[in-house]
Amino acid sequence: MKTQIFKSLFKAATLSLLISSSMPSFAEPTDEIIAIVGNSAILRSDLNQAVNEVKQTYQAQKKEVPPEQYLKMQALDAIIIRDAQLEQVKRYGVKIDEATLNDAVLKVAKQSGSNSLESFQQKLDAYSPGAYAGLRDRVAEDLSVQKLRQQMVMSRIKISDQDVDNFLKSPQGQAAVGSQAHILHMRIAGSGSEAEINQTAANVKNALQDSNDTAAIAKKFSTANVTVDGADMGFRSFSDIPAELAARVTNIKVGQTSELIPAKDGIHILKLLDRKSNDQKALVHQYQVRHILIQPSEVVTADMAKQMIDSIYSRLSKGEDFATLAATYSNDPGSARDGGSLGWVSPGTMVPEFEQQMKDTPVNQISQPFQSQFGWHILQVTDTRDQDMTSELQKRMAKQILGERQFDSELDSWLRELRASTYVDIKDKSLDQKAIEKAQNDSTQEAEQK
């Protein structure tokens, strides 16, 4: 339990700790290397700073501070994991763009009372020269590690179409998509014997199969020792139905009655009268698009690519066939085989430059040549439509929810594997859990031999 608490505290550093940890630091006079992680070295001053940060966080949250040796060993392990991830960041060339970094630093600035990066930089550097640059580096590292984790962990998560279908049929899935159920609810309880209550419940279930009059059924089967309550619950969202009951509703068809449901407050029976989905449709404005792409390459310079796209645009303007030119010249093999057709395109699926041109180009007209990260394009919108994408969006949402459920466990697995595969040499054996355990085992064996 303490280890889990430590991890959460170590990851959730407060603003003051983030700023203080970004201040320029200098090796202590008696500093030494206490561990090697890959190509990086961990100094004793690094460990001391990490331990002090965690202590401050414990104290700020008014929690009992664990023993010093425990803090040191756990802090060292956290530093090792972080350094191992930063090694992977370098290996895979994970980069954070300047705009994303500026946004993240600005959030920190606003939390500290500064409304601009300029004023924040002046504030930090006045406190300690170079502090702003140090903080930017720390935030950039954090963002890079987050991006690395997303890439590595998401590639490990596998969600099948059957997983999605099963989730959407579950109470959680039904609640997520806004489904509702019209339910009759009966409850049988009282001071009678278990056999008497069970028999009454069976009678109520049989009656409920043939009738929807809950009041009449309750009156008919209630006795001095057994109370039968019934109610028409109307349409209820699955999110408003107790989980143990919602699970039973998803497994029965309209008109059917559930099995007897034992609970602390009696025996419950449900009857499903109707079900409906959220009436709100997800209509998406789609574009039927075809395009021609010219990409610079080792043999086609950027200037040559621009000249080629301009020449193709000129030929299109004179009436030449778009599909023929796309099949002949486009560097997008998937669409070139089909005359440049990309089919029906939904907003959010193309790079920003392409999407903006797609929205701005009237139907059956040809866009001016424009550039994206992939090269030079010309596009034509041949039609538009408003498409009901409710089912597709529900499946996408289900995949996201299922992915989030798996993320933490897959992240833990990946971190354990990364830790095991990373070269680590702990110089200070008093901080090496494996060395301590080995020494203890050796001592135990020696004692047993004597």
From TrEMBL:
The keyword Signal applies. It is found in: Periplasm. Its EC number is 5.2.1.8. One of its GO terms (molecular function) is unfolded protein binding. Chaperone involved in the correct folding and assembly of outer membrane proteins. Recognizes specific patterns of aromatic residues and the orientation of their side chains, which are found more frequently in integral outer membrane proteins. May act in both early periplasmic and late outer membrane-associated steps of protein maturation. Keywords: Chaperone, Isomerase, Periplasm, Repeat, Rotamase, Signal. It is an enzyme of class 5 (isomerase). GO terms for biological process: Gram-negative-bacterium-type cell outer membrane assembly; protein folding; protein stabilization. Residues 1-27 form the signal peptide. It comes from the Bacteria. Pfam families: Rotamase, Rotamase_3, SurA_N. Residues 178-274, 284-383 form the PpiC domain. Its main location: periplasm. This is Chaperone SurA. InterPro entries: OMP_Chaperone_SurA, PPIase_dom_sf, PPIase_PpiC, PPIase_PpiC_CS, PPIase_SurA, SurA_N, Trigger_fact/SurA_dom_sf. The PPIase activity resides only in the second parvulin domain. The N-terminal region and the C-terminal tail are necessary and sufficient for the chaperone activity of SurA. The PPIase activity is dispensable for SurA to function as a chaperone. The N-terminal region and the C-terminal tail are also required for porin recognition. GO terms for cellular component: outer membrane-bounded periplasmic space. SUPFAM superfamilies: FKBP-like, Triger factor/SurA peptide-binding domain-like. It catalyses: [protein]-peptidylproline (omega=180) = [protein]-peptidylproline (omega=0).
